[in-house]
Design a protein that fits this description.
The chain is α/β, with parallel strands linked by helices. It has 3 domains: 80 residues, Outer Surface Protein A, domain 3; 219 residues, Alpha-Beta Complex (Spore Coat Polysaccharide Biosynthesis Protein SpsA, Chain A), CATH 3.90.550; 140 residues, no CATH class. Helices cover 46% and strands 16% of the residues. It is built from 18 helices and 16 strands. The chain has an 8-stranded mixed beta sheet, sandwiched between helices. A 3-stranded antiparallel beta sheet has the order 2-3-4. It has a 3-stranded mixed beta sheet with strand order 10-16-12. Strand 2 and strand 3 form a beta hairpin. Helix 8 crosses helix 18, helix 11 packs across helix 18 and helix 15 crosses helix 17. It is globular.
């Protein structure tokens, strides 16, 4: 079970003013009016006592509320895993296509897991490999004791391969008990011996339905190896926390290091059949929409054999980005712009126009536009402050608004670099006067990404990897958006096909 301990952040405080109760946070600047229940709940948090001991009748809605407060920066949380009294039955599913050496390494790691063999089923789904992988694995002298093999007649992609072993009523391993948990790992991953125990411990919590862990690089050498180890989209960072909720910095759980309760998996219909990338994002969001809770626990670690050649690296990032078109079609609300992005874009357009026009007068007008927009945004935020509610002095208020404006600027520049970098050389070839604005956006974007991930690698290594990733991502994103537009809403079934149950 997961022991959750919450407390107010150092910059937050509870205030009773004018008969109303508020939670005020100085950074990020915000004020939240509380009802009596929320006031008593937040006032009882001491950072030491697990919340299930503080709250009688703790439920999902209360935990979701506390996690939202953590994501907003007004609460701090610590988590501790308490081992379950009994271990559940688990089916570990490994989709594979070719690459027998990587699969053999993965299976050796699974057979060495610190988990009772009587409670463990290992199922390999051969996704239409040219030569049956079971024969190649035997030749490698790895053996397949305790492993069940399922072979698909054609290559259907990892989503369909996982479904073939999970969405079935058949007892693939010949055991009496149906598994309570499905765990997924990719064939090019190597699990830590405690990987499965850590995931099962988190899933022993009655309020958690799916869990994932840290995915690090198997070969963290060379520029790309170090960059992928620290900055890959499969690695969600060193801190535990809830996933896919409002404001969560962890939008989804990657399928290469993932476990889910069987009932929840069946309830949402498993993975989207036919999807080759983006299927883990889609499953995470469908689980969340159904009211299931997802949690990231970095102690459940696997090592992933990332692509460390530039061609393979760029191709994979492009594939990831292409899936965004299908995700946008299905979840448009999750891709909404951050508040204040309109002002940043207007300011950048003003700077671009001034750069093209040239001259001191143009730059002066651009500076005036930027100042006017920022003042308008600050005034809008001040106007939204509840009347009669406590607030910091004007100095603190100005400092908080400045920090917020800077954060929005950096975040928007991050998105612009990631989504459009490939097309910058063409624009600059026709409009070289925009070089200064482009440099400003790129510098802010790199700084924002660096600040968000804080990778333990040199800045030059990070900048090179990030530049390559953005070039590939902007290409794939454009392709995905065009494909989604071409299909149109009436033909959305082409990117969201019905699942198949057969193996």
């Amino acid at each position: 079970m997961l022991l959750r301990r919450y407390r107010l952040s150092p910059r937050s405080r509870l205030v009773d003013s004018g008969g109303k109760k508020y939670l005020v946070c100085d950074h990020p600047l915000q004020i939240i009016e509380l009802n009596e229940t929320a006031w008593l709940l937040l006032g009882a948090l001491d950072g030491c006592t697990p919340v299930h001991e503080l709250v009688a009748g703790l439920d999902r809605s209360t935990l979701a509320y506390l996690e939202r407060m953590v994501h907003r920066g007004v609460l701090a949380a610590e988590y501790e895993a308490a081992a379950p009294e009994t271990l559940p039955g688990v089916r570990v599913i490994v989709p594979a296509h070719g690459r027998p050496q990587a699969l053999s390494r993965c299976l050796r790691g699974l057979l060495e897991l610190d988990y009772p063999s009587s409670k463990l089923d290992i199922v390999v789904v051969d996704d239409g490999s040219p030569e049956p992988l079971r024969n190649l694995i035997k030749r490698s002298e790895n053996g397949d004791s305790g492993i069940t093999w399922v072979r698909l007649d054609t290559n259907r992609g990892p989503a369909s391969a996982r479904n073939a072993a999970a969405l079935t009523d058949r007892d693939l391993a010949g055991k009496d008990e149906v598994p309570e948990i499905f765990a997924f790992i990719d064939s090019d991953c190597l699990p830590h011996p405690t990987w499965l125990r850590e995931l099962v411990t988190v899933l022993d919590d009655p309020w958690i339905d799916a869990a994932g862990g840290a995915t690090r690089s198997l070969h963290a050498t060379g520029l790309l190896g170090r960059y992928e180890d620290a900055c890959a989209s499969l690695y969600l960072g060193p801190r535990a926390g809830s996933v896919a909720g409002e404001g969560s910095p962890r939008p989804y759980l990657p399928s290469c290091n993932f476990a889910v309760k069987a009932g929840a998996f069946h309830d949402v219909g498993g993975y989207q059949t036919g999807w080759r990338v983006g299927e883990d994002v889609d499953l995470s969001w469908r689980l969340h929409e159904k009211g299931y809770a997802l949690f990231y626990w970095p102690e459940a670690a696997v090592q992933h054999e990332y692509r460390v050649s530039w061609v393979a690296f760029l191709g994979r990032k492009r594939d990831y980005a292409r899936s965004e078109g299908s995700l946008v079609s299905r979840y448009p609300g999750r891709f909404a712009r951050i508040p204040g992005a309109w002002a940043v874009r207007s300011e950048l357009l003003a700077l671009a126009a001034a750069s093209i026009a040239g001259g001191t007068v143009s730059m002066g007008w651009a500076a005036a536009t930027v100042i006017a927009l920022e003042l308008a945004r600050a005034g809008w935020r001040v106007s939204r402050w509840p009347k009669g509610a406590p607030r910091p002095g004007w100095g603190g208020f100005f400092a908080a608004l400045t920090r917020t404006a800077f954060a929005v600027w950096v975040q928007e520049c991050r998105l612009l670099v990631r989504n459009t970098l490939l097309f910058w050389p063409v624009v600059l070839a026709f409009l070289p006067a925009l070089a200064g604005v482009a440099g400003l956006i790129f510098g802010a974007g790199v700084a924002g990404e660096w600040q968000a991930k804080r990778p333990p690698i040199p800045l030059a290594t990070f900048a090179a990897g990030f530049t390559g990733e953005c070039l590939a991502y902007s290409l794939g994103r454009a392709e995905g958006r065009i494909a989604a537009w071409w299909r149109g809403p009436r033909r959305i079934a082409r990117c969201l096909p019905a699942r198949d149950d057969g193996a």
